[in-house]
């Protein structure tokens, strides 16, 4: 797999060099093709599992079952199945639950390994974006989307940002943890003071904290954010309140004029069009007014790129006459980027996703999952302990009870803890953490676990290791060959 | 209650002005008297509970029981008992378990309120100690003792330090959390950079991390540290390893020559005499060699103060010829301070505590407990969740099963979370945290809880509020009047 990034885009490249070959002049057709290819490839790997297992199930009473099953698996899934599950099929029934969980985990591992070794979503714009961000007056962009799987692609697809240049930390309802963000604020400042990274502490840039809430334009009352009762107004207001509370926390916890800037983004999960709520002059946000990317797409379609961009700038200036120029430049870029995603959904998904509701393939529990940048693949439950995250996990289990358990299939849970390999003992602590959470998970849902309807894969990953060395490490899996007993 | 601190001790005060009126010339007799008065007062408040309840139990079938019981309580405990517990005694038996838990909680609350409003352990040396510490080359002293209740007095009594000037964070076996200390290191640096507190970042001082492990000279095989199998050598080596791992974590996580200094202290919990392990020239520690305060006490007893101090300095220089002069000055002060505590135990506890084993009065679970600076009062279980702290809690419950449950008395657990009131929503989060942990605790020990042998008091405290405003706030208690049902 080739590493993308051959096109050298300089920070000063004019708009015209970055866009083109879409219906809309500002849309990047090449990006859309590449992103769709990747999404398609990953999604079909997961989608192939059920049909392949159906076929294999139909073969289970044939005499050369194992050979034929492995052939089907190789052809349709690209990997072989564990022989010990197939081998027992002649005695009892083929254990399809276990086989299904195993296939989901294997597909996930292949997808994850590909991500960390081949960098399929890498962007040539990393350095350019960091410079642009600072130029707009910010030294970090810290985004908290809702943990809903329909927002998992918000950084790389919806906003078209280089994912390594943005902090993403998802929370149910986008209600991020203020203490966690406060700690990140401190870490960021310290790096600026000590190491001048990404710029020195005396540069007049700020920490920009963004929240992405969501709603559904097709089914607003049922397919919006579950954490806010599918009410877009409540979701926006809650995001706004949390942002202001974080701002106040920074101001109260640190002196010398410490503060942050705020950004509230709404996402229509049916079309991937965003709304940007506009900052007022006083550093606050107006949850009730916004600029809508879908509307701008329609309004500027057919215009030459430069004119379309000017129209967007003008709309933003009208809507927020008091906002700082740097903030408006950043917002304009986010809007322009989103036009590509709007067209992506139009071209590849008929303008409205067929799966407007939940259709995640597995639950991701723990910390990490940088590789999950695709829509509706993972229900995130970022957590330290099951004890604290029980409400989020219960929601995930409820979703999968409908998606999977209702059809006799188990809930696959990937338990994962990333660690800093350069800190002594960090791996051992991550391993212990992973095992403890996997145990607590089985203890919380004993009936599902007992009936083979909840399976877990335990992983850790060294985030200080780059490339292939930074792949996930498998610790354990609830689908495993029973130990051979001694005679 | 008067606030201490009238004696103005200037940073430059000669040794002779700070000591005197003990048997040993370097011992501070006035301090010993004040500390003993406080310890005695708190301890007798807790010790009065069982005899008072015995007396009240004997009265329970008398006709004017409630009046007489309240008189006994007022006289012996200094407070009245909840009428609704007494009122039911004529129907069934007096519920002494519930009454006992209620009395422990009430006594604890009175003790805690007194601490935060009257500052009984305040020190006049706070500013002087901070200046001295910086003069020795350190801008913070971060101490992790074992969480064992027999070390709870290590800061204010054993080492005679102003407790507000030292960070204390206890862990089972003194095995402190490296990620937590790393975060504290970062916070400390940021304050130096941004606010010049306690000094500016360019001052050539370092972060000093200390571990206090413990052993028992009378019963080394049974009354040492449970986390290390009562093996003093293992406890010292484990402390040393953890310190070196933290040092390496700082060096690997931050560049620009970031590092820390280390200190390993051993405590004989029978006599409160310390051992100081000496730094080698390379910034490491020798776990196998130390200077013993008990030995120095004997060796310098009878000498005039100045000569005794010189002898101590000489011993330290002999033992660690390569250690920096500032480190040796700090060690000398810790040794001199400890002489007072050695004499304190000699004079007030016969040279060896009668309770060389566990004799804690309650379990303290959560975060906070700054007011607990007394020996054998509290078994600490610093925790965020029961899930992560289960092994520590199990040890505590085992200890109290012997101390209390074996005698029919319940285990009192104070669940407490301190918060920064200046951070918006922090109180609400602390309250939710407290309730969640209290629930998880009852769920972990359902049999004890069901039989009324586990009781909890839920508290939060605003650490940003000073004085009386910084008292604990009671949220809930498992000992409470049953709700009146409507007819
Ligand atoms: Zn949501
Ligand atoms: Zn300041
Ligand atoms: Zn211990
Ligand atoms: Zn550097």
Could you describe the 3D structure shown?
2 copies of one chain form a homodimer. In chain A, the strands form 2 sheets. Chain A has a 6-stranded mixed β-sheet, with helices on both faces. In chain A, 46% of the residues are buried. Chain A is built from 16 helices and 11 strands. Mean pLDDT of chain A is 91; it is low at 1-14. In chain A, helix 9 packs across helix 10. Chain A is α/β, with parallel strands linked by helices and 487 residues long. The A-B interface holds A 178-179, 182-183, 186-187, 189-190, 193-195, 201, 245, 248-249, 252-256, 258, 384-388, 420, 422-426, 429, 436, 440 and B 178-179, 182-183, 186-187, 189-190, 193-195, 201, 245, 248-249, 252-256, 258, 384-388, 420, 422-426, 429, 436, 440. One zinc ion is lined by residues 255-256 of chain A.
Distance between the termini of chain A: 48 Å
- Radius of gyration of chain A (CA) equals 24 Å
The helix/strand series of chain A, from N terminus to C terminus, equals: HHHHHHHEHEHEHEEEHHHEEHEHHEE
Described by strand count, sense and barrel closure, the largest sheet of chain A is: 6 strands, mixed
Quaternary state of this entry equals homodimer
What percent of residues of chain A are in strands?
15-25%
Strands side by side in the biggest sheet of chain A: 2-1-3-4-5-6
Mean pLDDT of chain A: 91
Derived from helix and strand composition plus strand pairing, the structural class of chain A reads: alpha/beta
Biggest protein-protein interface? A-B, 35 and 35 residues
Q: Can you give the helix content of chain A as a percent range?
A: 40-55%
Overall, the morphology of chain A is globular
State the total count of DSSP E strands of chain A.
11
Instruction: Return residue spans of chain A where pLDDT drops below 50 for at least 5 consecutive residues.
Output: 1-14
Which kinds of small molecule does this entry bind, naming each only once? zinc ion
Q: Note the total helix count of chain A.
A: 16
């Amino acid at each position: 797999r080739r590493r993308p990034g051959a096109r050298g885009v300089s920070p000063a490249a004019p708009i015209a060099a970055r866009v083109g070959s879409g219906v809309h002049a500002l849309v990047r057709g090449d990006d859309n093709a590449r992103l769709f290819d990747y999404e398609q490839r990953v999604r079909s790997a997961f989608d192939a599992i059920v049909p392949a297992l159906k076929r294999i199930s139909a073969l289970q009473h044939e005499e050369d079952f194992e050979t034929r099953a492995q052939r089907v698996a190789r052809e349709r899934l690209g990997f072989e199945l564990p022989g010990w599950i197939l081998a027992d099929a002649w005695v009892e029934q083929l254990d399809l639950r276990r086989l299904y969980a195993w296939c989901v985990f294997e597909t996930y591992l292949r997808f994850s390994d590909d991500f960390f070794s081949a960098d399929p979503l890498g962007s040539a714009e990393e350095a350019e974006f960091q410079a642009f961000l600072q130029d707009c007056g910010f030294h970090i962009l810290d985004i908290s989307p809702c943990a809903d799987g329909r927002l998992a692609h918000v950084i790389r697809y919806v906003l078209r940002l280089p994912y390594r240049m943005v902090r993403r930390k998802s929370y149910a309802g986008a209600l991020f943890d203020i203490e966690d963000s406060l700690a990140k604020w401190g870490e960021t400042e310290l790096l600026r003071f000590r190491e001048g990274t990404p710029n020195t502490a005396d540069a007049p840039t700020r920490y920009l904290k963004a929240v992405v809430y969501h709603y559904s334009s097709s089914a607003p009352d049922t397919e919006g954010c579950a954490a806010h009762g599918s009410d877009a107004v409540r979701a926006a207001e809650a995001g706004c309140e949390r942002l202001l509370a974080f701002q106040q926390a920074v101001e109260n916890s640190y002196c010398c004029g410490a503060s942050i800037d705020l950004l509230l983004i709404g996402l229509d999960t049916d079309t991937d069009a965003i709304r940007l709520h506009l900052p007022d002059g006083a550093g606050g946000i107006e949850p009730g007014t916004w600029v809508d990317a879908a509307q701008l797409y329609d309004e500027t379609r057919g215009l030459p790129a430069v004119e379309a961009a000017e129209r967007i700038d003008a709309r933003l200036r009208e809507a927020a006459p008091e906002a700082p120029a740097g903030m408006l430049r950043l917002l304009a870029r986010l809007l322009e980027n989103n036009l590509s995603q709007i067209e992506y959904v139009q071209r590849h998904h008929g303008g409205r996703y067929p799966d407007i509701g939940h259709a995640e393939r597995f639950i991701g529990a723990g910390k990490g999952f940088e590789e999950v940048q695709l829509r509706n693949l993972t229900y995130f439950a970022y957590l330290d302990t099951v004890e604290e995250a029980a409400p989020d996990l219960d929601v995930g289990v409820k979703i999968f009870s409908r998606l999977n358990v209702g059809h006799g299939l188990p809930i696959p849970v990937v338990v994962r803890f990333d660690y800093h390999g350069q800190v002594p003992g960090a791996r051992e602590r991550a391993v212990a953490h992973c095992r403890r959470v996997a145990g607590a998970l089985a203890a919380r849902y004993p009936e599902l676990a007992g009936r083979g309807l909840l399976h877990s894969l335990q992983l850790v990953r060294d985030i200080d290791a780059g490339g292939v060395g930074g792949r996930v490490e498998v610790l354990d899996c609830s689908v495993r060959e029973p130990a051979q007993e001694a005679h």
